[in-house]
């Protein structure tokens, strides 16, 4: 059994309640009021944490894409301008930090570059997320790990050899590896949920699931397969503008997601067969004939 890790006072691992993350990401579209509404929706649903994304656009946007023009809700912008438009500054994140503390919910971020990790350190995050796109960035993996916090590592768009290499650079006592397929939204045939079982056998750390599919049923299946952490994108409305909205879950859906993950955990039980007291009336009624036969020496 993999050793549990701790995120903000919560143990994450086998035999622990599934740690549920609402991925706000960039679904706020650079609007702090929208971000707060998403936090409110996540808290109402009962999640353990909300997650944002932090980038330094000049480092994360390929140079040949900087001046590519894009239609946006704010007019025609270059791709670099657009990326800056949806990034929160220190003041905005200070307000997010204050608001999440007020609401009693953990928050953290996927950091796509080293300056973003340093930026987030001022908020003393409970953990960091390594996005799938950065799984092969050895320098970023080592840099983030050096902060001494738990790392949640996503594995979309990666081979098993690349995953093994990334994990080899990290302390398995302080990581959670998340199965993912980086298609937004992802077709069920490409979810490959049995990879959760494969990763559980391969690595001595908790295994999670980062889902980008439409609907909720496959996320419940991930919990049955042993995902200790589940992450799904949250949105106020899937029709909102933005690249991740279509693969996101709306507030009422997130409430069902959390509720039914908890029901699934309860239903899974401990695997030890027992006769429940609720079964006794049926036993007395339905086994009467058999019991009489046994008393008379019948078979």
SSE topology sketch:
Layout: E1 5-7, E2 10-12, E3 19-25, H1 32-45, E4 49-54, H2 57-60, E5 69-72, E6 75-78, H3 79-85, H4 90-103, E7 106-111, H5 114-121, E8 127-130, H6 138-145, E9 150-154, H7 160-168, E10 175-180, H8 195-202, E11 207-211, H9 217-224, E12 229-233, H10 251-268, H11 280-286, H12 288-295
Parallel strand pairs: 3-4, 3-12, 4-7, 8-9, 9-10, 10-11, 11-12
Antiparallel strand pairs: 1-2, 5-6
Helix pairs in contact: 1-4, 1-10, 9-10
Give short descriptive properties of this protein.
single chain; 299 residues; alpha/beta; TIM Barrel; eight-stranded parallel β-sheet; two-stranded antiparallel ribbon; 12 strands; 38% helix; globular
Written account of the structure:
By secondary structure, the protein is an alpha/beta fold. It has one domain: Aldolase class I (TIM Barrel, Alpha-Beta Barrel), CATH 3.20.20.70. Helix content is 38%, strand content 19%. The strands form 3 sheets. Strands 7-4-3-12-11-10-9-8 form an 8-stranded parallel β-sheet. Strands 1-2 form a two-stranded antiparallel sheet. A two-stranded antiparallel sheet has the order 5-6. α1 packs parallel to α4 (90-103) and α9 runs parallel beside α10. The radius of gyration is 23 Å and the shape is globular.
């Amino acid at each position: 059994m993999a050793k549990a890790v701790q995120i903000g006072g919560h143990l994450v691992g086998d035999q622990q309640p599934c740690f549920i993350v609402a991925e706000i990401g960039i679904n706020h579209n650079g609007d702090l009021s929208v971000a707060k509404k998403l936090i409110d929706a996540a808290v109402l649903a009962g999640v353990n944490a909300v997650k944002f994304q932090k980038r330094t656009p000049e480092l994360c946007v390929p140079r040949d894409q900087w001046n590519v023009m894009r239609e946006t809700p704010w007019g025609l912008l270059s791709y670099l301008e657009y990326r800056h438009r949806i990034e929160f500054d220190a003041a905005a994140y200070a307000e997010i930090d204050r608001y999440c503390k007020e609401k009693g919910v953990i928050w953290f971020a996927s950091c796509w570059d080293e300056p973003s990790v340093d930026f987030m350190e001022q908020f003393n995050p409970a953990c960091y997320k390594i996005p799938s796109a950065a799984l092969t960035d050895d320098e970023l993996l080592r840099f983030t790990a050096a902060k001494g916090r738990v790392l949640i590592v996503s594995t979309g768009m990666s081979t098993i050899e690349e995953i093994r290499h990334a994990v080899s650079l990290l302390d398995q006592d302080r990581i959670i590896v998340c199965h993912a397929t980086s298609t937004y939204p992802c077709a069920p045939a490409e979810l490959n949920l049995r990879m959760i079982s494969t990763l559980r056998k391969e690595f001595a750390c908790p295994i999670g699931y980062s889902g980008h599919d439409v609907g909720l049923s496959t996320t419940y299946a991930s919990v049955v397969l042993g995902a200790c952490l589940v992450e799904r994108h949250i949105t106020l409305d899937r029709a909102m503008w933005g690249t991740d909205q279509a693969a996101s879950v709306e507030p009422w859906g997130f409430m069902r997601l959390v509720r039914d993950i908890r029901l699934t955990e309860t239903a899974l039980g401990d695997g030890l067969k027992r006769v429940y007291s609720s079964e006794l009336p049926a036993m007395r009624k339905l086994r009467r004939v058999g019991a009489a036969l046994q008393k008379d020496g019948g078979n």
